[in-house]
Amino acid sequence: MIMKNSQGNLRFCLFVLYLFLRFCHLTGMTSVPDPTLLRRKARASLSNASCRFEPERMTVDDGWEQDAPLEVIPTEIRQEIARSIISYNRSPDLPFDRSINPYRGCEHGCIYCFARPSHAYLGLSPGLDFETRLIARPNAPDVLRQELSAKRYRVAPIAIGTNTDPYQPCERDLGITRRCLEVLREFNHPVAIVTKGAMIERDIDILAPMAAQGLVRVGVSVTTLDADLSRRMEPRAPLPTRRLATMRKLTDAGIPVRIMTSPIVPGLTDHEVEALLAAGAEAGADAASWIMLRLPREVSELWQEWLAAHEPARAAKVMARLREMHGGRDYDPRWGHRMRGEGEYAEMIARRFRAACKRLGLKEKSPTLRCDAFGVPPQAGDQLPLF
Predict the structure, then answer these.
(1) Who's near 65: CB < 8 A, 6+ residues apart?
(2) Does the residue 81 lie in any domain?
(3) Is residue 2 part of a domain?
(4) Does residue 87 belong to any structural domain of this protein?
């Protein structure tokens, strides 16, 4: 009797194993998931290769990980004393010529982020290091005040969040972005903010009065309305519905908001263009913009690793579309080309975007911010107010 039960249990286990392997085959999963991937919970990158400036690449598996506990990779925040904070650019692709970034690296961990290669300049990996080893610049507000007070400074809108999100989770405790906004408010300086973070709602008390003077606009990035896809691509960013709720709170406070349907991923999110714009318009956005998925330097390898693990059935189609728009390459960095690519597919997306914006009443170009209100506030010890 015991022997029969044992044989029955064995047959049942083998049958379950067969069903599992059959499921893996049908869904494109060719092998059982690597258990070490459990260590990457809430992280998008699947690797942490050495940065491109290192003479040798780091080994992927040296045997030391076999006894490591299966736990979430912690976030490490280091501090950097900034000597300057305003970065200038001359790119014809950008609507601004200066920006500030309170943080290096971004805990939101968007796998497609074009800023990942910038972590290599710190000697860190654009992979998991970019999401887990962050750099905060606590003296940024003081340096910003000094630079805006310089006699040679000429006012023009400053962009915040162009490289990494100014409202990523660590901002809750550090508050560097808020203190930078306080400085900009003192100077009546125009500012454009780009974020996925719902924490921007905390700063409505600063932004709303500035917006009333024509000094602020905000861009909120919503890549997809699919909560599951968003959680896998952007593991620590607010869900799409939460970002749309943030847009509504901002617009209700009189702060102009642009919905950024960026990046558009061919073969994965491109079918959502119209739905994203409609959701943004419903949330109060008055303008919209789009950028095609960009894969500069290390981002290409990281993105393709992610595709193979999360969307194996669509990986070939996604990469074929991207290469079609970039002359057979994963990415073409030429100005005037890198943001949207070229060819029939890129033009089709542009036509759909323009048509949807026209139907929904969304402007494709945000209104110009005021610069004439700028002024250096009186400093302690100044004699001018006496006259």
Answers:
(1) 36
(2) yes
(3) no
(4) yes
Domain holding 257, by residue range, is 45-52+71-360
For the chain, where are the E strands, in sequence order?
76-79, 87-88, 98-100, 103-104, 133-136, 158-160, 191-195, 216-221, 257-264, 287-292
pTM of structure: 0.82
Quote the number of domains for the chain.
1
CATH of the domain at 89: 3.80.30.30
Rounded CA gap, 320 and 69, in Å?
Answer: 39
Cβ distance 277 to 316 under 8 Å? no
Q: Please, what is the angle between helix 140-149 and helix 176-187, to 10°?
A: 20
CB atoms within 10 A of CB 345: 17
Q: In the structure encoding, which two tokens stand for residue 3, read together?
A: 């022997």
pLDDT per residue of the chain (387 residues) written in tens, 0 to 9: 444 455 566 666 656 655 665 555 444 444 334 433 434 667 877 777 766 666 555 544 444 443 434 457 889 999 999 999 999 998 888 889 999 999 999 999 999 999 999 998 888 989 999 999 999 999 999 999 999 999 999 999 999 998 899 999 999 999 999 999 999 999 999 999 999 999 999 999 999 999 999 999 999 999 999 999 999 999 999 999 999 999 999 999 999 999 999 999 999 999 999 999 999 999 999 999 999 999 998 999 999 999 999 999 999 999 999 999 999 898 888 887 878 889 999 999 999 999 999 999 999 988 899 999 999 998 766 655 555
Nearest-CA neighbor of 373 among 214, 199, 142?
214
The answer to whether residue 282 is domain-embedded is yes
